[in-house]
Structures are given as C-alpha cells and as structure tokens.
Amino acid sequence: MLNLAENPFREGLTVERAAEPCAVVIFGATGDLTRRKLIPALFSLYLQGLSPAKFAIIGFARRPWSDDYFREHMRSAVLEHSSASASNLGAWETFARSLSYVQSSFGDADGYLRLKERIAEFSAANGVPRNAVFYLATPPSEYAAVIGNLGASGLADEDGGWRRIIIEKPVGTDRASARELNSHVRGVFPESRVYRIDHFLGKETVQNILVFRFANSIFEPLWNTKYVDHVQITVAESVGVEGRGAFFDRAGIVRDLMQNHQLQLLTLTAMEPPSSVDADAVRAEKVKVLQAVRPLSGEDLVKSVVRGQYAAGSSQGAHVPGYLDEPDVAPDSGTETFAAARLMVDNWRWAGVPFYLRVGKRLPKKVTEICLQFKAVPGILFGAGHRREMTPNLLVMRIQPDEGISLRFTCKEPGPSMSLQQVRMEFHYGASFGAPSPEAYERLLLDAAIGEQSLFAREDEVDAAWRIVDPMLAHWAEHGREGLSSYRAGAWGPAESLDLLRRDGRRWRRV
Fold first, then answer.
1. In this predicted model, what pLDDT tens digit does every residue of 472-492 receive, in sequence order?
2. Which one is catalytic: 73, 81, 261, 479?
3. Domains of the chain
C-alpha cells in the first residue's frame, strides 16, 4: 500500500494543535458526503499544514473500486468542490498517495480484517502508532453493522494506538431509537472516544457566539429576562428536497434541522458561562438549557407548534413544484417541510422569555440567524408622538450567508426637530478579517484528530434534544395530515406561523 510519509506543508509552521499520525477510515467512501465535503476538507487541511505529518486515508465501501480508481474519483471531487484545488494539482499528486480503498459490504467480517491489516501496514511502514479515526459516512441504517463489526474485529480496541469514531447526524429518528443507537455505541466505544458530528457547530460564526457573549462585558449583563423581550432563531432554505425526496419524506424538517442545528443554536444563545472552554464544561451547560426547556403536550403543544408543507410557487424567479409533486415523495405525504415553535426555557436567566424557532424549505432566501429583541423603553421622555419611532433594539447574529453581527438602536436625525430614526451598526466577518471562513468540516475533522470534543454532541445532549421534539413528532404521526398547513413556495411559511407570534403581540423579523 502506498501512503503519504510526510506533509511538506508543515515545514516551518508552528501548529498550535498538532494531530498525531493516524489513519482516517471513511465508511461509505463512495457516497456524496465523502465527495463533496470530506476529501476536499482533508485536502485543505493538508495544504494548510494542519494534517498530521504522516497519515493515511482509507475508503471503505461496497463498490468494486481499486486504489487508483478511488484516487482518481476523489481528484475529480476536489476539482469540483474545493476552492483551493485549481492551483494545487502538484500537491494533490503527493496527497493522493495517502489514499487507498477497501472493498467490502458493511456487514462482511472479512472486510474489517482486511481494513485492520491496512492500518497495520501504514503503521509499520511509517513507524507510527496504529491510531485511527473511523468516520461513519454511511446511511444511518448501516451504523449498527459498522459499529458491531468494529468491535468484533478488534478494530475498536486501543491496542498500539487510539481509536475514535465520528457519527453523522441524525442520531436516531426519535428518542427511543437514539437511545438504542447510543447504547450500541457505548458497548464498543466509551463516550470519550465518540464524536457525534453536526457540521453547524464547525461554522466560525456559531463558535463566535460564545466569544461574543462571554468575551465582551457590555452584552452579558443584558442577556437575560430583565432586558430581553424574546428571541427568534431562523433556519431558512430556499431549495426544496433536491433529489432527497425518499430520505426527506421519512425524516421531515424537524428531524433534519430543528432537532440538531436549530436546538444547538438555542443552547449557545441561552447557556450560562461555562467554568472553562473544556469540552465537558461547555457541553454540560448546553445540556442544562435543553433540560430546562418546558415540555410540550396536549393543548399547549397545539398552540405552540405550527407545521406546514410547501405547495407550488416561485423560487429564485422560477416556478417550482409543490412538495407532493417532488420525486420519491408519497402523494399523500404528511411530512412537514416547515415548522415553527414557541419554546420556554424555565430557568432564572430566561423565565418568561419565549424562544421562537422557525425552520423550512422553499422559503424566500437561504439564511440562518439569531435575533434578540430587547424590551421597549417607556415612551415617557419623548412623548406619545414618538412611540412609533421608538422601536425595540435588536441584536442579530447572522450565521449564514454574509456572516456577521448587527445592532439596531435609535438616534436623533440631524435638524432642529426631535425626530428619531432607527440605525444599525454592522460587523461582517469577511470584511473585517479579509478572508472567508473555513469550511466547517475542516475544523471538525481536525478536532477529532486531536481529540477535542467541544464541538461534538454528548450522549445526554442528544437525548435532551429528542425530549423536546418527540412530542411534536408523535402528535403529528397520530393525526396524519390533520393540522398540516399549506404555504406557497417562496413564502415565509403558512399564515398560522404569523399567528404564533401575533397572539403574544409580536411578529417575525424580516430577514
């Protein structure tokens, strides 16, 4: 087996967090995730000198590919999906020597023995420990087979090197299945070696929520029920199911985005300051937030949650079909493509402050943001004539696109009269730092290689998140299409989502 002995891009570079030599094993290496995200991210880390000095990348999948075919297929993937590829084809030739391929079904025990030999070959050829990161880029239905065979083959044993496993979302389809999967994982890998990945947490703007809150004393004193009226968290996509009709029709938007991405944003917004930035300290505070979310049931659930499904309409200037006309979607499907919820975090900091979540497909634009609306000031000083001009202050953290932070406040217009005007202070990451944010998978793959778990979900965190959404999913499963609202593609969801806030005397922010 050929393998990369040295990474020349590390020469003269001081790497703050160096990854030890290791093999990265990608189960499901012929799939779309490997092609679009994983190999481009690993190649980018290599170019930056952040990959280990010695490493191997081993693909494991069913298709009868050779090492050379796997390398060529990944080369075309990098050309298509990596912005750094065009001027670095020479570097690719060296990087590609680290790539090899093991053809096997995920349930074939012999394939795991061949994989074990491949890792041992890399270790012996380079004089390094048999460290390995196992990445599950397979369909979730294959997780149990892969994990079981890693245990049965001895590949999970830390004999001559450490072993870590990365598990892609979704972790389960409900609380019960998540608990079953986590129990299965726990039987093979201890929690300290499990990395449940949510690529949202790898985004620079998401990581900066904690820095913005806890490294700036002017904001944290206002971050509570005394000053905050409510919080809105929006995760909007302009696209439809994009050829994933079969998967999405089984999952729905709550499983696909709310249970993981959106609730992660809620925890980072609402958590208490951790005792340190160590993984367990940060994740413990996030779990406390999820556990403090008031359970929804009965009439309260009906009033606090809205679900919708897009009909035909216009998106990005083009006519698009409704969800029921998408390929591989059941013609009578009750799967939600939009959801909005009013959640209450019952703790001292947030008592009485509603968190409004909305998430959907075929909305007017792609945007993810967190908006804190502060309480309005009394209109006594400026009189009744200025009440319309004195709108509440807004603090908006834009996760994507155009990543940045915006603060809206009131000023006096120039002139002799006391005329008030809303103005904004804007911060944009790209303009301020002069470089685009790195891809989320780059950060997460590097963290897994160095053993940093802060940006990965812990088992109790996954369980607490499912506790919040499980009642919604169970209620909808029981009632079918009853209560499922329709909205035109290109609109901001069904009218019922507007009523969710209107009943509280509030409205969705225009994003």
1. 999 999 999 999 999 999 999
2. 261
3. 8-168 (3.40.50.720), 201-502 (3.30.360.10)
